[in-house]
Design brief:
It comes from Sorangium cellulosum (strain So ce56) (Polyangium cellulosum (strain So ce56)). Its EC number is 1.1.1.85. The protein is of the alpha/beta class and 335 residues long. Helix content is 41%, strand content 18%. The protein has a ten-stranded mixed beta sheet, sandwiched between helices.
């Protein structure tokens, strides 16, 4: 029976990498009935909302979605579709494995994970202009939010055979908000004595990610730090074209790449679909389709190790469709 999965193509390079990923999932032999819904600026022009209710309802009903990036206007305009989706569906854990692919950047051999709190912090959207010329953003930190993200990170570490969780914070300066998050994570850690515990201030964590990333294991951190460290991690393993992500809640999960809509290369046909393909691997494993996930991952490793088919972001000349064809052929190759 086919899985019913909500598909949000997004905009910019979104539809290009989404189509490629659909082909890859199909090559891996997983039947999916994709329920397509649109979000973003074009939808806002037609319906008045960049994220109409039927899109949210579809994700809620199917409990699983694959999503392309959606452009967010800077400064004014509508609220980020991504943030709204994560908050409305309470997708509180943003999981971003940062893993090197063979031959991409030999300076680093990275294998770490960032678990980012996805609904609170400065992304809670509590901003106001308190006086002319004086703006205020409220950083929201709750005991419930901090405890459940730490619990998620420790359970994730256990499930994925990782031995260490590092709590990343800035509780030396934000003694109350980050202090609360740190206390909650420490309390959760007590219940997981088999997992080694690390604590690090966010600026030191940024440096450690560049010098000795694998020392960190699984990072658990608040929203903004996790957002920034994820892009740093992407830079370590070859850029945003590579790194996957998942937004996971108790009732639904949305899988999407770390990268955005890349307006500078949209429509040109040479976006790297690897990040969304790897997000789909996470999705397949979430569904229990481990064989299909393993097949895609093996094929990606083989393709990258051979090094002949590379997209432009990684110094190659392959188009999105060249890369996708080669990947599908590798997945389908009898072993
Ligand atoms: P971006 O990630 O879109 O692009 C940054 C750089 O990385 C660009 O040079 C781009 O060409 C390159 N890049 C990104 N993905 C690539 C890929 N798959 N293959 C090859 N090169 C790739 O970041 P940005 O330019 O800061 O953001 C553009 C828009 O995307 C903004 O409106 C932002 O709000 C939005 N955004 C959306 C999401 C999401 O939907 N989850 C995430 C991040 C940013």
């Amino acid at each position: 029976m086919a899985y019913r999965i909500t598909l949000i193509p997004g905009d910019g390079i979104g539809p290009e990498v989404v189509t490629a990923t659909q082909d890859v999932v199909s090559a891996a032999g997983v039947a999916v009935d994709w329920e397509i819904h649109h979000a973003g600026i074009e939808v806002a022009k037609l319906t008045g909302s960049p994220l109409p209710l039927p899109v949210i309802d579809a994700v809620r009903k199917n409990r699983i979605a694959l999503k392309g990036p959606v452009t967010t206007p800077i400064g004014g305009g509508f609220r980020s579709v991504n943030v709204t989706l994560r908050q409305t569906l309470d997708l509180y854990a943003n999981v971003r494995p940062i893993r090197s692919l063979p031959g991409v950047d030999p300076r680093f051999d990275v294998d770490m994970v960032i678990v980012r709190e996805n609904t609170e912090g400065l992304y809670a959207g509590l901003e106001l202009m308190i006086l002319p010329g004086v703006a205020q953003s409220i950083k929201l930190t709750t005991e419930r939010g901090s405890t459940r993200i730490a619990e998620f990170a420790f359970r994730y570490a256990k499930k994925h055979g990782r031995s260490k969780v590092t709590i990343v914070h800035k509780a030396n300066i934000m003694k109350i908000s980050d202090g609360l998050a740190l206390d909650c994570a420490r309390r959760v850690a007590v219940g997981h004595p088999e997992i080694q515990l690390g604590e690090m201030i966010v600026d030191a964590a940024a440096m450690t990610m560049v010098r000795d990333p694998n020392r960190l294991g699984v990072i658990v951190t608040e929203n903004l730090y996790g957002d920034i460290l994820s892009d740093l991690g992407a830079g370590l393993v070859g850029g945003l074209g590579i790194v996957p992500g998942a937004n996971i809640g108790d009732d639904a999960a949305v899988f999407e790449a770390v990268h955005g809509s890349a307006p500078d290369i949209a429509g040109k046909g040479y976006a790297n679909p690897t990040a969304l393909v790897q997000s789909a691997v996470m999705m397949l494993r979430h569904l229990g389709e481990h064989d299909a996930g393993d097949r895609i991952e093996r094929a990606l490793t083989t393709l990258y190790r051979a090094g002949q088919v590379r997209t432009r972001d990684l110094g190659g000349a392959a188009s999105t469709s060249d890369f996708t064809r080669a990947l599908c052929a590798e997945i389908e190759r009898p072993r």
